[in-house]
């Protein structure tokens, strides 16, 4: 089953296409890094998935074929928005009550235990909590629903390093123990690198890379060699990015089958961070995306 599937999805605001021509299929059980620069369309894509934004064209399906925004879908997904919207005038306890009344699956003991462990004063008004505490509260309310799909828009932005680590560890545990599929959006891929196993990379509203991180990394190689040979070596390769330093050059190359190492050159595996940075530098670059990536991923999943 795919937890999130879009076909030809587009969202236009006036003259701007916030998301355009977006076709992807994310299989269940994945921890997805949804990455891209500012304004790439990450929030718009997530808002479409949870029914907060209407698509201008194309379709979005959740958890098999539930329409985005349908009651069936909303019961089984949880979304934590970038600004962690909470009722600021309510106390933490009252906020938990509101959330519990809105969802049949809400697990009060889980929420209370987590708030206690985080030392969040439950009688305090939400508006008086620190930014990090508000983010932790929003995340607790989302997790207490034991969703099948958890979508988090920039969940770490307001957290200190220890809280970031703890949130990641908790989400990983829930993914392992309850099989929750997770989509994290972030600008900072290095933060997601340890936990994510699937990448959706966007630039200017379009998909650049979509697929299992392992496969995407295997399709890219770094070649190091003499700068004056760069043109000759790069001529028959798909060079994503070239970086010169003194008399050496580093080529990030994309390939669908193993490449031969040119004589006198060294090969290296790129890190995810390096690879994402190279794509972000050039929004026109497209690797795996659209129906081809969907078909490739489906074939990969079947083979496993
Ligand atoms: P960031 O990382 O900065 O949060 P993002 O990748 O989440 O960015 P979006 O917020 O989805 O990007 O925005 C994508 C584009 O759509 C941007 O150009 C933004 O200005 C535009 N946009 C988003 N929401 C609206 C709106 N309600 N009205 C008009 N334009 C919008």
Could you characterize the architecture of this molecule?
This protein is of the alpha/beta class and 304 residues long. The chain folds into 2 domains: 2-214, Rossmann fold (3-Layer(aba) Sandwich), CATH 3.40.50; 220-283. It is 35% helix and 30% strand. It has 11 helices and 14 strands. The protein has helices at 42-49, 71-76, 92-102, 108-117, 131-143, 161-178, 189-193, 213-218, 230-234, 272-281, 290-303, and strands at residues 2-13, 16-27, 31-36, 57-62, 66-67, 77-80, 149-153, 181-186, 198-203, 206-212, 220-226, 238-245, 248-254, 266-268. It has a 6-stranded mixed sheet, with helices on both faces. Strands 2-1-4-5 form a 4-stranded antiparallel sheet. The chain has a 4-stranded antiparallel sheet with strand order 12-13-11-14. Strand 1 (2-13) and strand 2 (16-27) form a beta hairpin. The longest helix is centred in the middle third of the chain and has 18 residues, at 161-178. The two termini are 14 Å apart. The relative contact order is 0.14. Adenosine-5'-triphosphate (ATP) binds next to strand 2 and helix 1.
Encode the helix/strand succession as letters. Answer: EEEHEEHEHHHEHEHEEHEHEEEHH
Strand order, main sheet: write it out: 6-7-8-3-9-10
- Can you identify the CATH class of the largest domain? Alpha Beta
Specify the CATH architecture of the largest domain.
3-Layer(aba) Sandwich
Question: CATH superfamily of the largest domain, called what?
Answer: P-loop containing nucleotide triphosphate hydrolases
CATH topology of the largest domain: Rossmann fold
Q: State the low-pLDDT regions, or none.
A: none
Bound molecules: adenosine-5'-triphosphate
Estimate the mean pLDDT confidence. Answer: 88
Helix content bin:
25-40%
Distance between the termini: 14 Å
Total number of helical segments?
11
């Amino acid at each position: 089953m795919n937890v999130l599937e879009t076909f030809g999805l587009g969202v236009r605001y006036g003259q701007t296409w916030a998301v355009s021509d977006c076709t992807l299929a994310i299989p269940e059980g994945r921890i997805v890094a949804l990455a891209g620069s500012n304004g790439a369309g990450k929030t718009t894509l997530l808002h479409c998935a949870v029914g907060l934004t209407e698509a201008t064209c194309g379709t979005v399906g959740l958890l098999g074929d539930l329409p985005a925004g349908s009651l069936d879908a909303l019961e089984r997904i949880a979304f934590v928005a970038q600004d962690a919207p909470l009722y600021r005038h309510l106390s933490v306890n009252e906020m938990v009550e509101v959330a519990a009344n809105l969802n049949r699956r809400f697990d009060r003991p889980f929420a209370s235990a987590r708030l206690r462990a985080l030392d969040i004063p439950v009688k305090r008004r939400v508006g008086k909590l620190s930014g990090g505490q508000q983010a932790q509260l929003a995340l607790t309310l989302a997790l207490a629903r034991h969703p099948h799909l958890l979508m988090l828009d920039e969940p770490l932005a307001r957290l200190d390093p220890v809280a970031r680590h703890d949130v990641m560890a908790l989400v990983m545990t829930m993914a392992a123990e309850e099989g929750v599929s997770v989509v994290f959006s972030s600008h900072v891929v290095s933060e997601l690198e340890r936990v994510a196993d699937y990448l959706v990379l966007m630039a200017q509203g379009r998909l650049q890379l979509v697929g299992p991180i392992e496969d995407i990394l295997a399709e890219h190689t770094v070649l190091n060699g003499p700068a004056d040979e760069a043109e000759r070596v790069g001529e028959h390769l798909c060079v994503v990015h070239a970086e010169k330093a003194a008399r050496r050059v580093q080529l990030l190359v994309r390939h669908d089958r193993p490449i031969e190492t040119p004589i006198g050159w060294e090969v290296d595996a790129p890190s995810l961070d390096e690879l994402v940075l190279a794509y972000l530098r050039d929004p026109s670059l497209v690797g795996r995306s659209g129906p081809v990536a969907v078909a490739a991923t489906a074939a990969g999943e079947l083979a496993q």
